[in-house]
Amino acid sequence: MVISVLVEINIDKVFDYNVPENLRESICLGKRVLVPFGKQTLEGFIINIKDESDYDLKDIIEVIDSEVILNKELLELGKEISKNNICNLTSVYQSMLPVGYKASNKRKVSIRTKNYIRLINDDVVEFISTSRSEKQKEIVSYLLKNKSSLTTKFDNASINALIKKGIIEKYSEEYYRLNDNNEVEDLVKLNPSQIEAYNQINNSDKDVILLNGITGSGKTEIYMHLIKDTIDKGKEAILLVPEISLTPQIINRFKKHFNKIAVLHSGLSQGEKYDEYRKILNKEVNIVIGARSAIFAPLNNLGIIIIDEEHSDSYKQDHNPRYNAIDVAILRGKTHNCKVILGSATPTIEDYARAKKGYYELVKLDKRAKDASLPLVNIVDMTKEVRKGNKIFSEELLLSIEDRLNKNEQVMLLLNKRGYSNYLMCSNCGEVTKCPNCDITLTYHKTSDMNRCHYCGYADNNKKVCSKCGGPLNNVGLGTEKVEEEINKLFPTAKVLRMDIDTTSNKGSHNKIIDKFMNHEADILVGTQMISKGLDFPLVTLVGVINADTILNLPDFRSSEKTYDLISQVSGRAGRSNLKGKVVIQTYNKDNYAIKLTSSNNYEDFYNEEIAIRKKLYYPPYSFIALIKVGGKDFNNTLKEANKIGDYLRSNIDKEIVLGPSVGSLSRINNIYYFEIIIKYRDKENIIKLLNDVRNITITNSKINVQFDINPNAF
To answer: Is residue 460 part of a domain?
Structure first.
């Protein structure tokens, strides 16, 4: 027997190995094996099995897995993702697995077990009547009634004595780090609007359904009913959510109604991820809930895939392999002949265009559940407020916060900038503190009194004077730390929580903050975009957007769309129960359509404005975008290689548009210089083939790193 193994090296090359007689029974596609490779010993995935080879082959050393960890579907899916995203197949397979199953994982994750004892034979009446040991009789009598016991319930000496006498035996059982045995309740009945949407989804003959429901319209209830239908048919479901912060709330909601759930997201420990994956492999669950990588859950009988908040950037991985979970979901949907549901109040322009053209089924939910009304939205012109001396909070926002606190209601404040200030600037010479490794200013974090780079991780102690002229340094700009500090000064009796990357880096921290706010242990929650979607707090009646322009001013063709999404989503956190909600949006661009249209909550009007601009500029959905980033430590050498790739593309492309190479939004990150080439194209198949040729033919300089990003979130 000969197997083809994809080993853990950075090239897509398969190597054949002989399988010794004693290991042949355990060989299956999708298992990992340990193989000799030169002077090394490496792990790899079995991707082919054949009878013989024309060459003299080395023997494999060991079969690592007792079960198949990458089934045939995932093996083929990996090849498709590798081709479509111009990346190594090994990196795709690695991204499909939790750390405990990855090839090259140095830290082995253990299976947890508990030790039990049980009777070898129930015929122990004579022993009980004749034994002189009361402790041994107690154990035997207990086992007659209960069949088994944890060894910790009795003393080891008595247990060992009974084992020697051949009366009892020890055995072990695996247990999971996360294991909930809960009583389930019936699902909540759908209201008329939800029933109409639910029926339209069920009756659709389309493979992909876009559920465009306003915030608070009850999309999750529809998801639950669709998943119950799927389980009743003996099939399985995947539900993706965009943020780790959303998983605790949505998991708790699902666990009220379902009890065979596995959870997969990066907030779990390595051991917890390993256990959850084992539950799936052992067919102990029929629902998988998680963030992006949960789309690779090894379910064999998928009946539905649901992607909540489908507009979120987090479904696109920002490092190799740069796959989009939505694209993967559609591929898996075709394989399993199941529907893919994309849910959002603010769908991507591309997906809404596909739905409008009839490629996807468009299902709308225009009313909030439980007859809750949409919040009142006020846009505040901060240019006028600054003249009054109000640099951070407008008068209207402060009065609204005071009013809500007096009513014992809750407030959420959004600022999509973490840290204390954006940067430090010398008041004498204008010098700003910059990262020594990147072309970016350092962000000041007051909690740690450090200046930090949010790109390479560089940090240094905060300096009080300018390194150039010795002048005083002033804080410029605004971050969530500063907002939290100012709110504590203005409302000293209010309890304030902050939710951003800095406060949620520890395991379980997301959950703790959400639970505290849900239990009204805090009055005000300050946060970045992680508080903007999916969270449901009945007492939140006021949402304040501190600066609506943070994304709007970025050099990105999607900046208006992202601004509208963010404001609309966070606005939807207000007034979700029977209490009236209000939203105060502070901006310096009050006439910008992306901001102005959030006040009317009219996605259709925003779409019409945005799609007209996209058409003029030949941006998606009127074209596809491919981004090639060429990086290297030497500026001139990197530019030379980038020009070489650009020339190759232009000489092999007739009608498509090739832009660059040019310096990107950041020319240097972690001492690597980057140049970008952008391709706008319509012929997807030919461009993918061409980019794979670029990868295989033109990249010959080992000092240059070339990255491919198909339909990137940003340039």
So the answer is: no
Tokens of 574: 């207000």
Together in a domain, 402 and 364: no
Query: What is the domain extent for residue 54?
Result: 2-101
Torsion, Cα 123 127 128 132, to 10 degrees, reads -170
**In terms of domains, do 350 and 394 share one?**
no
Query: How distant, in Å, are the alpha carbons of 657, 676, 686, 687 from that of 654?
Result: 9, 20, 11, 11
Q: Is 671 exposed, middle or buried (0-12, 13-18, 19+ CB in 10 A)?
A: exposed
Q: How confident is the model at residue 422 (pLDDT cuts 50, 70, 90)?
A: confident
Same domain? For 227 and 326 the reply is: yes
For residues 166 and 251, membership in a common domain is answered with: no
Give me the DSSP letters along 83-133.
HHTT--HHHHHHHTS-GGGSTT--SPPPPPEEEEEEES-S--HHHHHH---
352 & 279 share domain? yes
Which run of H or of E encompasses 393?
none
pLDDT digits (tens, 9 = 90+) for 569-623: 999 999 988 899 999 999 999 999 999 999 888 899 999 999 999 999 999 999 9
Given a cut of 70, whether residue 665 has pLDDT beyond it is: no
288 and 408 co-located in one domain: no
Nearest CA-CA partner of 255 in 209, 287, 282:
287
Q: Is residue 472 part of a domain?
A: no
Please spell the DSSP secondary structure of 25-80, one letter per residue.
GG--TT-EEEEEETTEEEEEEEEEEES--SS--PBP-EE--SS-SS-HHHHHHHHH
Task: Give the separation between CA 564 and CA 532, rounded to whole angstroms.
Answer: 12
Across 119-155, b (16+ Cβ under 10 Å) vs e yields beeeebeebeeebeeeebbebbeebeeeeebeeeebe
**Could you report how far apart the first and last alpha carbons of the chain are, in Å?**
49
Is residue 58 within 8 Å of residue 30, measured between CB atoms?
Answer: no
- Integer Cα distance of 563 and 532 in angstroms: 12
> What per-residue confidence (pLDDT) applies to 702?
77
609 with 640, same domain: the answer is no
Note the pTM of the prediction, 2 decimals. 0.90
CA gap 286, 222 in Å, rounded: 18
d(CA 515, CA 522): 10
Residues 379 and 365 in one domain: no
Q: Say if residues 296 and 126 touch (Cβ distance below 8 Å).
A: no
Does the residue 437 lie in any domain?
no
Residue 179 class from Cβ within 10 Å (0-12 exposed, 13-18 middle, 19+ buried)?
Answer: exposed
